[in-house]
Amino acid sequence: MRLSATSAPSLLAGDMTHLLSILVLLLKIYTTKSCSGISRKTQELYAIVFLARYLDLFTDFISVYNTIMKLVFIVSSLAIVWCMRFHPMVKRTYDRELDTFRHYFLFWASFAFALILHEKFTVQEVFWAFSIYLEAVAILPQLVLLQRSGNVDNLTGQYVFFLGAYRAFYILNWIYRYVTEPRFTRWIACISGVVQTALYADFFYYYFISWKNNSKLKLPA
């Protein structure tokens, strides 16, 4: 989330799209008092992603914008998990029977990859790599839940769409930086970002079909 003169436009677009996805999800929970269609397991994985990635919040100051965005992502992800677990009305709408993906496999596999494949063997860099690997696959429980439920409500569909679009913007940023910066070596983020975006391909296809036909979003079982 470091802004530079060369990477600011696509990076800022990615950050804003990511923030928009979170706002859409919070809007859904606040207005409907429901988390139906939302995977709590995916939200827990995202909370872990932000906590692991932003350890530098206590050691490195980059900019006010950077610090605020990190805090927003951490606080909002924890707030969503809290609502889904403890809010009296929201937790009753949780689709426990559909949200059965064994997400702890994703957690431990990502951590093992981080221990093996990292750019520097330091605590901060290993946890950064772990967060990148985990984020690439954290959406899987959510996508599986949506496929099992079939119908997707409007706010949930927009949430997942914006979440996928944010990573696509980041890929554009990485491509630009790779071409313009001789020492750009964040290969872990690039590969994981491509994998993450690829996981959304099926959802994007049906999302655009529903938008084109002005019909309700439905995913094949």
Tell me what the structure shows.
It is globular, with a radius of gyration of 17 Å. The chain has one domain. The protein is 70% helix and 0% strand. The N terminus is likely disordered. The chain has 221 residues and is an all-alpha fold. Helix 7 packs antiparallel against helix 8.
**What share of the residues lie within helices?**
55-70%
Largest sheet: none
Radius of gyration, taken over Cα atoms and rounded to an integer in Å = 17 Å
Number of strands: 0
Number of self-contained structural domains: 1
Give the SSE order as H and E letters. Answer: HHHHHHHHH
User: What is the end-to-end distance?
Assistant: 36 Å
**Helical element count?**
9
Average pLDDT level: 85
GO molecular function: ER retention sequence binding
Main location: endoplasmic reticulum
Membrane topology: Multi-pass membrane protein
Keywords: Endoplasmic reticulum, ER-Golgi transport, Membrane, Protein transport, Receptor, Transmembrane, Transmembrane helix, Transport
In short:
The chain is mainly alpha-helical.
Distinctive features:
mainly alpha; 221 residues; ER lumen protein-retaining receptor; disordered N terminus; transport; ER retention sequence binding
Question: What's the layout of helices and strands?
Answer:
Blueprint: H1 8-32, H2 40-53, H3 64-86, H4 103-116, H5 123-137, H6 140-149, H7 154-180, H8 187-199, H9 201-213
Protein name: ER lumen protein-retaining receptor
InterPro entries: ER_ret_rcpt
Transmembrane segments: 12-31, 68-84, 104-121, 127-146, 158-178, 184-208
